[in-house]
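Q: I'm writing up a methods section and want to include an example of the input and output format. Could you take the sequence below and give the corresponding predicted structure tokens, formatted cleanly so I can copy it straight into the document?
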Amino acid sequence: MDGEQLADFLRARRAAARPTDAATSGLRRVSGLRREEVAELAGISVDYYTRLEQNRTSRPSVQVVAALAAALDMTQAQRAHLFRLADHPVQMPQPRTQRADPALLRILEQLDQVPAHVMTDLGETLAQNRLSLALFGDASVHTGAARSTYYRWFTDAAARQVFAEDIRERESRARVAELRATLVRRSDEPARELGEKLRSASAEFAALWDAHEVETRISDRKRILGPTGMLELYCQFLTAGAPDQVLVVFTPVAGTDAAERLARIG
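A: Here is the clean output for your methods example:
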């Protein structure tokens, strides 16, 4: 833990915090929040918080770090930085809604000629365009753990049928490594539960999980079987304001007939 930088960061965020009506009373002589107000909002003692700001105590627990991030109304980036300074794995709060991020949704709505969809970092599809629906089916029909494409990939053979057989093994490895990266970043109950269910439900997943591979995919190349035949597609993973969501866009590989085949899908 870098106690000095942690102390500096807490002081800076406290000074920048905007006092709420509940936290203000009388004439204020300091900018931002008082130490007493931060301690009360975080549910810790004033003495302990003061020692944190003065680098006179040991590493705070994960629970205290999360409470301080909430008390100081930190952004996702600030929260992640605070966890790193405290030498804890970064933990993001659970998404407050299951709606697609507006920025990603605006882009999705402009994509008419290529398949695209918005997904959470646990593989739950939040929005699809017409070509995504045509290739992968309507993801909204799934419930429970099956809402996750990770879960369906390892428990439902039908989920793999649209992918060319020769890329399925590689796809399996990549999906497990990708999910492990997500679970390292967030260890909340939904994430832990998905990992536990997959280890119990799929021997293939459990074996790949034990390999401890970690990956965050930015782009990939896939062969996908659509209504008009096999498609050679680049797959791009794009993020915006919501760190727990991604826009997945499939574009034709140059020199193939994928663009023509996509155009023929009604």
